[in-house]
Amino acid sequence: MPVAIFSVACIACREESEATDNERLPVEVWALKHTGLNPMHRQYQQKGFGTPAGRRER
Ligand SMILES: [Zn+2]
Fold first, then answer.
1. 46 CA to middle of ligand 1, Å?
2. pTM (2 decimals)?
């Protein structure tokens, strides 16, 4: 079974969240905290490894 690894990168400062296996929640919490600390940083680039972008097959 392929493992999807999620992480996001802040577009404003390029900081990246930790990568998590098959779990989006820690990444979303990281993004919320990052926006809380840096109110101008609101856009994140999603990074998914293991699943090609734009394709979701099961
Ligand atoms: Zn940032």
1. 13
2. 0.74
